[in-house]
Write a structure and sequence with these properties.
alpha+beta; elongated
Length: 52
């Protein structure tokens, strides 16, 4: 996320959930994760074009 210049962001959903199960099951971090969901806020440009 730092490469995108986002100051406020959160890693969410499956990436968090799956890594908890990975720790419980003794699997490596990132195992079974096909994508990462990120919530972010960028106050500089709230337009539709910026989001798209």
């Amino acid at each position: 996320m730092p490469q995108l210049g986002l100051r406020e962001w959160w890693l969410t959903a499956g990436a968090v959930f799956q890594n908890v199960w990975n720790a419980i099951e003794g699997r490596p971090a990132g195992y079974g994760i096909n994508d990462y969901d990120v919530f972010y806020f960028d106050a500089e440009d709230l337009s539709w074009d910026a989001e798209d």
